[in-house]
Structures
1.
Amino acid sequence: MSFAETVKRIKAESVQSESNQYVPPEALFLSLEKLYLKEIKKLIIQLNDSQGAQSSQILAQIHETDRLYLDTRGMEITAQVLFSRHGECDMLGQKKLGLSPNAAISEEAEKNMATTNQFSGALLCYSSQEHPPLIAVSPMNRAMQTAGLVIPQEINNADIKVLPFLTENSVSPSGFDVRSIADMQELYDQLSFWTSPFKKLLLKLCIWTHSDEDFSPLYEKRKSAAEKIEKHGKNKILSDGDKPDVCQDLKYHGDKISETKALINGVAQRDCWLFGHGKNFRAFFQDVFAMDSAFDYGETRRVYKTKINEKTSLYTPPYVLVINQKTGKIEGKYTGRAAIPLQKKSVDPDYASSSEEKTIPDAPTAMSQLGTPVIRESGTFEKRALENSARVEERLDPEKEIERYERSPLVSTSN
């Protein structure tokens, strides 16, 4: 039985449960969640074994599986946000232990991702022609280069923004949006040795060991990337003048997480694709979803903006998508963890640590209103399930529920 057919069965039995207490919603949803994780795991394996057009078809299946699952939970998808970390920029190679200012991606990664934009359109949920996407990019070199290579080739009407709050969270010059010796001197002068000694020392070392000539190739890479990005949009991101460049804000001291939330809050019925940096995005996911895991090079995490009971929420599914830096192919990585609004964190026991197997951790709600503090529930899901256990007996066993849904015929809801 397909996942779609199983969802249909669960919906039918959910209706029955309201009339004759056949099985409470908690048991149905627990079974649905297990089936969903199982289906996603299977599709990720298929994605990694596929090529070309077949990969695009499987990516579409993954999205449809997400949609069916959320719809059954009463959550309507109202927008999608993609968080993509830049391509390979190695600490020892390109970043030179942090002493290579505003480091670019590796030449190998740039070459290997040259064809990624032929297939990246499969990550979109909406028609780009009917719902022009919002594309927001960090002004730093490696994020600009990645966006120029990855934005789907068919997009030509996007709303494009270059946003300083997407820059990296860093203590070393390789993570600063500096474009000249003067820029590094300006940042150096802003810092106090007593509050940021390491950062100040690294900047001084870079000022001593670099010249403005070192920034010329970086400017050319950034300008070339910006020109590629502009072809996908209806607005310019390069300034006018003898040396056009993207915006820069060396005095930025805002709240990056709050500004990212505000950006998402304004997105409706379209895709929003953010190109940025690992530490920045990691901080966002830790704050919103209590997910503290590093982003790989080229990793894209999907977040659905949803509506439930007329309130806006967020949901991130139990997988990530990664652009293989050796081939440029979009692959998947099953994590077994999903942040579910107004519920506990879904954890696949096969992918949980030993401590998680004993106690499933409480997860934050994905925000009942964007911009408000994250609310952590105190085990209400487990408590409600325990209260209903006497009524459902062995039917609460999700594995038995899966077998029953997959083997028995579809229940008729007609009288």
2.
Amino acid sequence: MGGLKLSVHPLFFPLGLYYALTGRILVFVVFTLTAVVHELGHSLKAAAAGYRLDKIVLTPFGAVVKGDIKGLNPTDEIKIALAGPAVNFAVGTAFVALWWIFPETYAYTDVAATANFSLAAINLLPAYPLDGGRVLYALIQGAKGEKVATVTAKVTGAVLGAAFCALFVFSLFSSANFTVLFFAAFILFGAFSDKGAGKYVKTYFSLSDERLKKGLRVKSFAISANAPVKKLLALSDGEAINRAEVYENGVFLTEIGQEEINAIIEKGGLYEKIGDYL
């Protein structure tokens, strides 16, 4: 299956230090945990499309996916991008519902609710690598191509970054908001950094002797030869040996084992028919 790599954005620790020095370290910890929940939304949606997360980048404003999602069409990329904010919004709404039933819990959960709603809203801004930026990139890529999408993403990020810099300057005349400054730096960093820092990659299934010594479950399922390869990926279990009965128009064609499934995954385009590789 391959290991999941975790890296930390250069601004993550400075912002954490700032929150610690201002006596708000608990808020920072809650936002960090909320970012992990946010990333869980991305990962689950990607897994449904037959992809796993190759790298998590923990940033000051959420754990985001950076880089291209190779082989994914714009529609699926948008669904994966929006899954993170959707999970945060759902969790935040659950806390609000909890307050109606048990009002006394408000004092203990208000920070968590605020963190979830805030991260959901922030990540919908159309600035790369935020989820809103990924949606913008995918929409333009589908209509105008990758080059135009890349330029648009960088320009939009630069404009938003400059706007937040201006907002920080205005805050100096009342109460300086350094969180806004960190966010502006984060947006500008994303606008001009390399897009290839992380990606979703195809899920592969290892049959190493080391794994087999521990014992593996065998998962069997049926699928149509006309189904796309990504559906085969979605039904396969990375912690089991997979076997698939393939049918066409309700008639049994063949059974494929894990090695054949791996071969189809390696050769096949996500949206091509499984039957093309039998």
3.
Amino acid sequence: MFLKKVIIHFLVIIILSMSCQSSNTLPSGIQTGYEAINPASIIAVPVFIIPDPSKNSSIDLAILNTHQLASKIENKIILSFKGQPNINGHSFSAVSKFIGNKSPNIIDDLSNSIKLVSARFFSDEASIRTKITSSCVLRKSFLEFYSYCLAPEKRWLDNLNLLSSQIINADSALLAFINNIQADVKDGSYQITGDFSVLLVDTNNGKLVWGNNVSLTLTNPQDKKSFPEWEDLIDKVFNNEFWKNFPGRIEK
């Protein structure tokens, strides 16, 4: 057991030393090489519930389910693209209807791919830890987790290609993630916190085209002994600024 821990520690040191040269922060918004793109057809993939492995985040499932946050976020995102003539595709509900209730389905396979890659960071197995690449180990955001850890995975790309081929060969996929959901009382004040990521990815190669991730906390005054409304938090996150430079979107 001791030798096993020494080996794992040694491997982590090697990966960290290799990754120092590739530690530049990946910016939000449009990515290099995709500045002029305007996707022909976008698949809006149903929301994924995934804690951000780049942070100490967690998701309170009771809050998530009670307030139906996934469906509210999907509705808010669709509303954000209302009246955008240059953006075409398939809505969350249309994709869900197409996939159907059969389980496991392609969305389950995509979700499992994310969870398997995320689990590597918490594994004690040397054979698992060595799968963490040098560019992945120093991820600082969910955008970087996707670009450096998930996108290069063959299983992920295969599932993405399959989803695209099943839905009229859409060239892009809109991926929405709930990364953190918490409610706390701190110093007598009731507060809620949500972390969310939205990525537009190329379904041909899995690369990130555009992305943004936001963390927001709402706090009520101390004399108000109740939590802020989750709808208010969602509205504040998914504002016009959130979608800045989204391909084909007209800024209003």
